[in-house]
Amino acid sequence: MIDKERAPQQRSPQQRSPQQLNRKPEEDVGPPVVEICSLWTKFGKTVIHQDLNLEIYAGEILSIVGGSGTGKTVLLRQMLGLERPSRGCVRVFGEDISEAGPEQLQRMRNHWGMLFQQGALYSALTVFDNIAQPMRELRALPEDVIRDAVLLKMDMVGLGAEHANKMPSDLSGGMTKRAALARALALEPRLLFLDEPTAGLDPDASDAFVTLIQALHRELKLTVVMVTHDLDTLFALSSRIAVLAEKHVLAVGPSRDVLRVNHPFIKQFFLGGRGQRALEVLDERDEERDEDRDEAAEEEPKE
Ligand SMILES: Nc1ncnc2c1ncn2[C@@H]1O[C@H](COP(=O)(O)OP(=O)(O)OP(=O)(O)O)[C@@H](O)[C@H]1O
User: Which PANTHER family does the record match to this protein (predicted)?
Assistant: First the structure.
């Protein structure tokens, strides 16, 4: 039987053209932490991903953007081993998660944290028990060690110990995100997945949460994979942006390079009013960085 998807097909010029932008990080970052190769996802006859490739490197914050229904969440779930692709590989820390059995999957899951947009916390458990839960599941740590670790994680995300016995329903939106982040960091992962981390937060809480993620990324040397629609969050955090369109990664690279790609979705997504405002923030950040660099150069002793 002929596999229609593998057989040569008539394609539009746009599909035939090479990927418009595929930029790796500039510095030498070693092998990818996540590698997605030739991935296809089909639900019935509907093709969501078609020959999709993406590599995510240690220490970067890689953001995935795309129109509604382009398969961002499905891709994230495939990286987490919650769904299997129809075809292709999803390697995380060098192991093919799409081939992994239940035990291997459980072991692999201990190496990453996930902040879900919805259902971030178990509503019937206190903040403390929510954060302790991944540690308790290991069945290897004594309760006093778990207690100290939970309080440390709470401190890391800016949640005072006085919130430990609160129920999730007693927390503000920002505090709920912080508690969920503390839980995602419970097992000291090297890789963190964020699904719409600032969704539902007011602008101040959103800015504060972005600042927290920046600090944790830097201090814990995390690799972060994020899905977000929010341009402020996107530009503030991303080392690189991967744009999902036409069933594959249309462009991947630093924000400025992606913005230059001439594609209708990219123009519409980034260059409307919201995009202009976010770009101004990016410009300000670049200027501040240049000024810091100039100051540092002036302070350096001359030989
Ligand atoms: N288990 C499933 N069975 C059938 N179709 C599914 C399944 N999961 C996802 N889909 C479909 O796959 C497509 C991609 O879904 P996905 O949730 O990944 O999109 P998305 O890019 O995250 O969209 P949004 O930005 O709106 O959240 C959608 O059309 C969705 O209806």
Answer: PROTEIN TRIGALACTOSYLDIACYLGLYCEROL 3, CHLOROPLASTIC
